[in-house]
Design a protein that fits this description.
Structural class of chain B: alpha/beta
Order of helices and strands of chain B: HHHHEHEHEHEHHHEHEHEHEHE
Oligomer: heterodimer
Largest sheet of chain B: 8 strands, parallel, barrel
Structural class of chain A: alpha/beta
Radius of gyration of chain B: 20 Å
Number of helices of chain A: 9
Strand content of chain A: 5-15%
Number of strands of chain A: 10
Order of helices and strands of chain A: EEEHEHEHEHEHEHEHEHH
Shape of chain B: globular
Strand order of the largest sheet of chain B: 1-2-3-4-5-6-7-8
Chain lengths: 264, 373
């Protein structure tokens, strides 16, 4: 019998020495209500949830994100969405840590308000500052293998290359570059942004990504809880397939039941 | 500097709107964001034949980009002194209204009151009068708002130079709203007969100066009812496109308020219907998925409720359009800029948003996102 390597106990996701059973990270934006958000998070099985610091109101105990996301159950991963440059991202992260939110940060620097694509130069600068300052930095990056290596070299605890523009639902359009990032990885690779369907998440996991992050696809679904469950299965299936060893695509047909012993 | 949104290209676009067929409208929806030809079809009367489909497309795109959420903001009028004489505005110097510029104490009281309601995003509004409303005064008001607890501070006031905008950015200004009112130069001059605002080109170039100063957001718009609906809609879309192409780091927001009545009951030759307003709102969303589309309390509750989440992703609620409106008694009341049509309280509006299956958002910004990068 083939051992079940994808057992979350024996195959955990480890980031910065911390172990997680789930390989699906979820976002908290765009939901119709706090209740829908919690139901979706629950059914997704996510243990790491990212929270936009610009959305969260640290002074307001009624703020729904802080009210609905139980810090004993989830690792709250603050993100710097809205930051246009390294200075703004560092400011946001530092003040969030001072307010007791976390010393983990999903670093997002997106100077272009239209496609919200990450700025490699400013992201690298901010990562250097934040890592030196003791943060666990999870940078959201273009799918650039050299940038990924450089960020790992300076101490980022993951790299988070984008599949396609954030919120676009277009799936993995950067497949070849992500494959190189995975091949060379020394830190977990989390495919972030653009994953619109469980099949996209499964594809990332089949490629050998360590985890995926999904927000829009969960939040804008008609049934957010059911979509959370669907993504959970997509991630698990992709991981199991990766560990089981996927066959390589070939140009010619190969019979699944080869006929042996023919003379030619 | 001004975008080329007059003359022959505009005439051709107007022709495209008049010649648009239902087939053009249908094919516009096949590729979103829609092209300029698609935009022309969507603002044509033919679009009304499949209004339901367009509404769904606008809704889905808004949800995809912004989620099932609507941001809330509130205008805070700091002064109604004005040297201009815009024929549609009650602040015009020729109108005899009670004039007032709020003291910093009064500004603080108004701000504190709005924070109690939950607002975190405020739009400071003033007329134009250098004697009563200086750049230093505005700068102090901005700093004051940030210190009080507002995370996003916008300004709708006189147009300024790049240096002046930069100074306000350093004080904490996040956004400048500068509607062209109408892109029709002739009508523009007629309805802005005197005062600095008479200068069409200076007004048109203001958005450029705002972006050059590093202010993060610029609000464009037309006051529907002044110029021809089609021409102004097309010119506004061109202006948005121009800003996005030229200033890739600047966020653009758009609003298309309508005039419902004029001071002295003046005549309005280009009245815009609810249907046209809805058409333009959806066309704007489908052409520009990422812009902020704002709807003010100038519109009726019924129309506002219909458009929440259908293109529109930012609204005000409980607005007063005169300085001191949130804290002062009616005996002290200064004159208002225009009559508010949706008089519902913030609580009533948030309930209406909830009933549409949307969540309202007070805070979608952070003071640590410094406005000048």
């Amino acid at each position: 019998m083939v051992p079940n390597n994808s057992d979350p106990v024996t195959d955990p996701l480890i980031i910065a020495g911390r172990s997680f059973r789930s390989r699906l990270l979820a976002g908290t934006g765009k939901f119709r209500s706090g209740l829908e958000m919690t139901q979706s998070l629950e059914s997704s099985g996510a243990q790491i949830v990212t929270v936009s610091l610009r959305r969260v109101d640290l002074d307001n105990p009624e703020d729904h994100i802080l009210k609905f996301v139980d810090p004993d159950k989830y690792l709250i991963l603050p993100n710097t969405s809205g930051a246009r440059n390294a200075g703004e991202a560092v400011n946001l992260a530092t003040l969030a840590r001072e307010s007791g939110v976390s010393d983990w940060v999903k670093l997002e620097v997106t100077p272009d308000p239209r496609y919200l694509l990450p700025d490699p130069v400013e992201t690298f600068k901010a990562a250097e500052i934040l890592v030196k300052d003791g943060f666990k930095v999870l940078p959201y990056i273009p799918a650039d293998p050299v940038l990924a290596r450089r960020l790992a070299d300076i101490g980022s605890v993951t790299v988070m290359p984008l599949g396609s523009p954030i919120g676009s639902n277009r799936g993995i359009k950067t497949r070849d570059s992500i494959a190189i990032i995975i091949e060379q990885a020394t830190v977990p690779v989390i495919v972030d942004a653009g994953l619109g369907a469980p099949s996209h998440a499964a594809e990332a996991m089949e490629m050998g990504a360590d985890a995926v992050l999904v927000n829009t696809a969960l939040a804008v679904a008609d049934d957010t809880a059911a979509m959370g469950a669907a993504f959970r299965k997509g991630v698990e299936a992709g991981r199991e397939a990766y560990l089981a060893g996927l066959g390589k695509p070939l140009a010619t047909a190969q019979a699944s039941s080869p006929v042996a012993g023919l003379p030619w | 500097m001004a975008p080329k949104i007059q003359g022959e290209p505009l005439d051709r676009a107007v022709e495209a709107v008049f010649n648009a067929t239902l087939r053009d409208v249908r094919s516009a929806l096949e590729k979103i964001p829609v092209s300029s030809a698609g935009f022309a079809a969507l603002i044509s009367p033919e679009a009304d034949k499949i209004a339901g489909r367009i509404e769904k497309a606008a809704h889905d795109l808004t949800a995809q980009r912004f989620g099932h959420t609507v941001n809330l903001y509130i205008p805070l009028y700091i002064s109604n002194y004005c040297v201009n004489n815009c024929s549609y505005c009650w602040f015009g110097r020729g109108n005899s209204i009670t004039r007032k510029t709020l003291s910093h104490d009064q500004v603080a009281r108004e701000g504190a009151r709005l924070l109690e309601d939950g607002y975190k995003s405020v739009l400071l509004v003033a007329g134009e009068d250098p004697k009563h409303i200086s750049v230093s005064y505005i700068s102090d008001c901005i700093t004051q708002m940030k210190k009080l607890g507002f995370v996003f501070v916008g300004l709708e006031a006189q147009t300024m130079s790049v240096d002046q905008y930069r100074r306000l950015g350093e004080a904490g200004l996040d956004s400048v709203t500068v509607y062209q009112e109408t892109y029709d130069r002739e009508i523009y001059h007629r309805v802005h007969p005197t005062g600095p605002k008479h200068d069409y080109d200076r007004r048109l170039d203001t958005a450029d100066r705002v972006a050059q100063a590093g202010i993060r957001n610029v609000g464009l718009g037309v006051l529907l009812g002044l110029g021809d609906f089609t021409r102004d809609a097309l010119a506004l879309a061109s202006h948005v496109k121009y800003m996005q192409n030229r200033y890739w780091q600047t966020m653009v927001s758009v609003s298309v308020p309508r005039i419902h009545s004029w001071p002295g009951g003046g005549y309005m030759e280009n009245r815009v219907s609810d249907t046209q307003l809805a058409r333009l709102t959806m066309a704007m969303r489908l052409a520009f998925p990422d812009i902020i589309l704002t709807l003010s309390t100038r519109e009726s509750p019924g129309l506002r409720d219909r458009l929440f989440g259908v293109g529109i992703n930012q609204v005000s609620a409980g607005s007063k359009t005169h300085p001191g409106g949130y804290t002062e008694t009616s005996e002290d009341a200064a004159g208002e800029q225009f009559p508010v049509v949706d008089n519902r309280s913030p609580a009533e509006v948030t309930e209406a948003i909830r009933q549409k299956g949307l969540e309202w958002v007070w805070k979608d910004w952070d003071v640590n996102l410094k406005p000048v990068g």
